[in-house]
UniProtKB/TrEMBL annotation:
GO terms for biological process: Mo-molybdopterin cofactor biosynthetic process. Keywords: Molybdenum cofactor biosynthesis, Nucleotide-binding. InterPro entries: Beta-grasp_dom_sf, MOCS2A, Mopterin_synth/thiamin_S_b, ThiS/MoaD-like. Pathway: Cofactor biosynthesis; molybdopterin biosynthesis. Heterotetramer of 2 MoaD subunits and 2 MoaE subunits. Forms a stable heterotetrameric complex of 2 MoaD and 2 MoeB during adenylation of MoaD by MoeB. During catalysis MoaD shuttles between the two heterotetrameric complexes. The gene is moaD. Belongs to the MoaD family. This is Molybdopterin synthase sulfur carrier subunit.
Length: 77
């Protein structure tokens, strides 16, 4: 199981800030595709990803038991 944390507009799109998926080892890129298909989340190509609180790339490996955070760009003024 992989725990996924969502913030800002991603949380609003899914309707909750945390989801859990029963999937085996995967990559960030594959997880993004899964979320886009299952939850119709747009714009995942522009978010930062962290696996267990360490920033990750699209080819980074996610293992069962990991926590993955999807962090959208922040703007302010």
């Amino acid at each position: 199981m992989i725990k996924i944390l969502l913030f800002a507009h991603l949380q609003e799109a899914v309707g909750k800030g945390e989801i859990q998926l029963e999937i085996g080892q995967t990559t960030v890129e594959q997880l993004k595709a899964e979320l886009q298909q299952k939850y119709r989340i747009a714009g995942l190509e522009h978010v930062m990803i962290a696996i267990n609180e360490e920033y990750a790339l699209d080819n980074s490996i996610i293992n069962p038991g990991d926590t993955v955070a999807f962090i959208p760009p922040v703007s302010g003024g």
